[in-house]
Amino acid sequence: MRKFDFNYFVAEFAKATNMESLHATLEQATHDLGFRYFAMGHHVDLAIPPEGIVRLTNYHESWIGQIVEEGFFADDPIHAASTKSLVGFLWHDVGSLIELSDRQKQILETAAKFGLATGCTIPAHIPGEFLGTCSFGAPSLDQLRDDSLPAAYIVGGFAFEAARRIVRRKSRYGTEPTPTFTSRQHEALIWMGRGKADSEIGTLMGIATSTAHEHVEHVRRAYGNAQRVHLIVRALFDGVVTFTDLLRR
Amino acid sequence: MIDIHIFEGCCTPGSNVMFDAMHRDRKTIFVDLLKWDVPVIGGQFEIDQFDGPQAIYLVATDDDEGHLGSIRLLPTCGPHILGDIFPQLCDGAAPAGTGIWEISRGCLSPRLRASERLHIRNALTSAAVDFALLHGITSYTCIADMGWLSQILALGWGCMPLGLPQTIGRTLTGALRIDIHGGTPNLLRDAGTYQRTRLVREQQGQRNAA
């Protein structure tokens, strides 16, 4: 079998200056990998996508329409599985990563009718960004190469980075600095994320309730006077705190 | 601005507080957490055959010489991991030459919080780029678990795979070449990862006899 020419594709991805040329290169790479369809992007609400996100696909238009109209993206089993995995996986292994609901089984069955019976997904998660993936799909694995999965890593990784670069140059996304906190403010933020009230935070940190309140207020101001739930989500999103900080330690 | 300490040559266990802390953190990360099959000295230090006089270490420390994070640089003219242990990860010969150094044992202290991790990681990356530009290093090579590929690329520097990733142990592993040139700091700035650091050359520690 002819070796997969990753050098060519990595060079083309590096040269891409707009989404159109990236789309064309990614489509060609998808074909050479032995797949037919690709979808690369951040996981967001597709009905009202935020600005500055990556979303590039050659999935069948009526399938995309159905994904958006029926809100399939919110329950997408592939996306759900990708949050459980730092490494790439084949779609037929999804059942071992998450427990599939009836609706998720229905989504997989419907996707198969649009030529997406099988495929693989490469996560491209970056701290401080929406979760991202690059997926490759096909009606069957007949055309798959021996080295398709490792090669898909290279294609997915470099294509996603090219897309991030193009998006960055087009928008101000990602240039807003993440707020920084003192270690005490950070500790207060973690207790807040664990559902503690100011008085409890004071006790846990061995400080007065009023001092705990000041720490909490500082964090709120740093996030534009955000309410507690919103600022905790923002802090998780920015990578200022992690799920481990809030749930495991 | 954070100081990044530069050590030429490894110190023997027990002779340098900072080195001991680094080898201890490396043991926690690579042996306890990632289950790598690498040597452990005295039950607490991860030290391998490449931790010798030829290795250069870039190290971030706290005020008490505590280890926050570090990377190890090896000249590819001498023994190094890609050339000596995993040459099969390269389609051709493993890149070697005076201007090519290998980055390995990138390690962040497990005690760091999420935001500090990003800060120290970016500082070490920026220091590696500055160090390369100061010393005529034109390329780094490295071996990476493919789960980290996106994050390595997202640092903003120019990377090139040296071959298709292969399964080593339980992880898909690949080799990369990272090219460093005058424009690299700007690529990092563009990606939001460049941090100004002060490179502090340390008194050479007691060198291993190796």
From TrEMBL, chain A:
Keywords: DNA-binding, Transcription, Transcription regulation. Signal peptide: none annotated. Transmembrane segments: none annotated. GO terms for biological process: regulation of DNA-templated transcription. It comes from the Bacteria. Pfam families: Autoind_bind (PF03472). One of its GO terms (molecular function) is DNA binding. SUPFAM superfamilies: C-terminal effector domain of the bipartite response regulators, Pheromone-binding domain of LuxR-like quorum-sensing transcription factors. Residues 178-235 form the HTH luxR-type domain. InterPro entries: Sig_transdc_resp-reg_C-effctor, TF_LuxR_autoind-bd_dom, TF_LuxR_autoind-bd_dom_sf, Tscrpt_reg_LuxR_C, WH-like_DNA-bd_sf. This is LuxR family quorum-sensing system transcriptional regulator CciR.
UniProtKB/TrEMBL annotation, chain B:
Its EC number is 2.3.1.184. GO terms for molecular function: N-acyl homoserine lactone synthase activity. Pfam families: Autoind_synth. Gene3D superfamilies: 3.40.630.30. The keyword Heme does not apply. Keywords: Acyltransferase, Autoinducer synthesis, Quorum sensing, S-adenosyl-L-methionine, Transferase. This is Acyl-homoserine-lactone synthase. The lineage of its organism: Bacteria, Pseudomonadati, Pseudomonadota, Alphaproteobacteria, Sphingomonadales.
